[in-house]
Each structure stands twice: as structure tokens, then as C-alpha cells.
Amino acid sequence: xxxxxxxxxxxxxxxxxxxxxxxxxxxxxxxxxxxxxxxxxxxxxxxxxxxxxxxxxxxxxxxxxxxxxxxxxxxxxxxxxxxxxxxxxxxxxxxxxxxxxxxxxxxxxxxxxxxxxxxxxxxxxxxxxxxxxxxxxxxxxxxxxxxxxxxxxxxxxxxxxxxxxxxxxxxxxxxxxxxxxxxxxxxxxxxxxxxxxxxxxxxxxxxxxxxxxxxxxxxxxxxxxxxxxxxxxxxxxxxxxxxxxxxxxxxxxxxxxxxxxxxxxxxxxxxxxxx
Length: 275
Prior knowledge:
The chain is an alpha+beta fold. 26% of the residues lie in helices and 22% in strands. The chain contains 7 helices and 17 strands. The chain is rod-shaped, with a radius of gyration of 39 Å.
């Protein structure tokens, strides 16, 4: 009798287990999400976790650390951090690297774009661009001027001593090119300062001119005074005549003092061009 009762009890337990498992399976068939747990606010749909943006995996357990991060200027996100290309810095590679200005210019950035992006004028002056060394930038228009990288002469006369040139009297920025044209129209002497600049072919550029008095001063201030350009400590010619048949303006690069000199004197020459 005791054996029968024990057997009956075991049979009842087994039946209960089978029924429980059957119920569970039936519940799963009725609700495929019953046994699915989705993490990170994922939602189970037909037995599969539908993960929110930035998460993946069977249970939405894998987080994409780069989700929502946009790296600028061709930067790449790696484990949630922007890896910036050369020339760029910042959390999202959004800023120019002030230590890489020349590389940025070489890669096609304009001086104005760099200035607008936070690069100072002092950091732009002396850098190579459009065939020469930047010594002036109009930060509104983006136009500017560069100086030739070397002297065109160390002992050249201004030319036509005793002849007053028609024109060649511009002193301001932007007048050097016209001054040079005026000099060449009024003085046919070979090898004079203006002609050396006009005939210069340097770094694939041919539109060089003898700088005006103010342009020459900016070469001194923004280049030579800051150690750029390899200028001599000597007197340089400008293209500005002194309303005289005998004299023209120049500048002493030993102290920055501008003065006139006889046009027949042998002086240094450095060409400029605009961009």
C-alpha cells in the first residue's frame, strides 16, 4: 500500500511538471516575447529585440559609442572619440591647428578661411602661398600680397636718373603694380629694379612687381621684423618716385626707416605680387 501511495505521488509530481512545461511552451507560442529580455530600453517585437538608436545585439546589449558623434573635416570616430586628420584639432575636429598652418595652406585652405577659423595674422605672415611669403591679408575680402622668397638683386638702380616718370607716384597698398607699369613705360633702361620684378618668373608666377612705399613697409613690418624672408640688413627700393627726376622712395631694413635716395644708387630689390 505504501508503495502504491509513493508511486501515485511521484506520478502526480511528474504530471505537474509536464503540465507546467506545456503551459510555458503554450505561453511562448501565444507570446514569443515572454522569455525575451531587451536591455537599454529595447522593445521585443515578435520575439526579437528592436533596439533604440545607438544600441545593437540580440538583447540590445552592445552600445555604439560613436552614435550621434559627427567628426568634422574628415575626422573619424573611434570608440566615441574623434581622431582628427593633420591640421585639425578640437573635440569634433572643428578647429584649425595653429601649428599646422603651412600644411593647411598646402592642402588648399585660403588665408581668409584660416583667419576666419581662428588663425592669427601673425601666424599667417611668412607662410608660403601663391608663390611667395604672405605679408598682407585683407581679412574682409581675402585678397592679399606675397613677397618673393629671395632678393631679385643686391645692387640695382631704380633707373632713369634725371628723368621724372609720368605716374609711379602711388604710395598706398595696391599701387605697386601700376607704379611698376608706369616706370617701365617711362624708362627703357635694362636691368632696373622695376624691370627685374616685371620679368621675374618664380614659383610658377609671372605677375610680380616692385612694391610701393607702403607695401614695402609691410614687408619690413610683417616679414623681416619677425624673422621671415631672409632679407638683408640693407636699403630696398620701392616703386614710388619722389615727384622728382632724381629720387625715389626706399626703406632701410636695418631699422625700418623710409627715406628717398638718388635713382642711380645701387640698392636691394624684392618683388611682390597680389592674390
